Amino acid sequence: MTRLVGIDVARALALFGMVIVNFKLVMGVQEDDSALYYITSLLEGRASALFVILAGVGLRFMATHDAQTRRLPLVRWQIFKRAIVLFGIGLAYTPIWPADILHFYGLYFVVAACVISFSNRSLLWVCAGLIVGFVLLLSLLNYEQGWNFERLVYKDMWSWQGMFRHLLFNGFHPVLPWAAFLVFGIWLARQPLLDKSFQHAACKRALTILILMETTLWLLRSWLELDNTDKDLSVLLSSQMMPPLPTYMVSASCSAILVLIGCIWIAQKCRQHRVFKHLAQVGRLSLTFYVAHVLIGMGTLEALNMLGGQTIETAILCAAIFCLAAVLVSTLWLAKFKAGPLEALFRVITK
Q1: Across the strands, what pairs with 154?
Q2: Inter-CA distances, 161 with 155, 164, 169, 231, 332, Å
Q3: Structural domain boundaries, residue 49
Q4: pLDDT tens digits for 92-109?
Q5: Does pTM top 0.70 for this prediction?
Q6: What is the 3-state secondary structure (H, E, C) of 128-160?
Q7: Number of domains into which the chain is organized
Q8: Rounded distance between C-alpha atoms, residue 114 and residue 119, angstroms
Q9: What are the residue boundaries of the DUF418 domain, all occurrences included (predicted)?
Q10: Maximal C-alpha separation, the chain
Q11: Residue 108 and residue 102: Cα distance in Å, rounded?
């Protein structure tokens, strides 16, 4: 139970991070040198990566529970049904929110259904294969094909060729290499997450790798004195989300480990604390709030004519208001119901 509470809190933090990043994007915040802008930029690509890793953790727990009463083919079929539903919901949602991740989730779940019974070592090899596969495609194909990066619009997404390219290679969260996050989550869920020695060792390694990688990249960029004219080299010497190079995948995975294990550790100490319990409730309704932050949150911003030309302070304030509303709504909802509205609907459809 402690582990599950910690995971729910981590899921809530990932959701809050995605809300901040997406509100900043749609509100047209211009890049500046402020501390607030820098801090929020650190969340880009990391909150969503944590979200995917937590989905892998949840799938592993579901598979372990179902395997006690069902044969492995039925467990795989259960995951595959969820994949179909997520893919369908996500595609229907994409015209409203082009940066949607749900339809990618559907394909990640197909990968998960195939590897759910693999050994720990094999899972890590699959992660490496997905990451290397993307690098190979990047050397063969044009990553910018189909994109208008100034407006963040994918021009030919609804053609067969564009859809395949978008899903597999150069969309916002393509299967290569993003499915590696989900597979890594499955591997992570098999580890003794409640064991203090594992927690200490995992956090120490993750923090060391993260600091060494980010420091090395920063020193190389400073040494080479890169500017806006060195676009390709700047991308290679960064851990930014697009394109998702191995530096980004490793850096985001290390960040996710630190947040997840930190939340589990706190859950072991004070999971009955009111703030912690409220965050866990938000995590239990993460699917509902993910959809709501676009339909309701961004819909409200559009009604108030706030989509564009806003400051970073305004974007953070709006994101904070939505997150506080999510805490309040989750508390009221779970006082009467066992699951969120979309979570309950999802279970009924995939049952």
Answers
A1: 147
A2: 12, 5, 11, 27, 46
A3: 2-350
A4: 888 888 888 999 999 999
A5: yes
A6: HHHHHHHHHHHHHCCCCCCEECCCCEECCCCCH
A7: 1
A8: 12
A9: 189-350
A10: 60
A11: 10
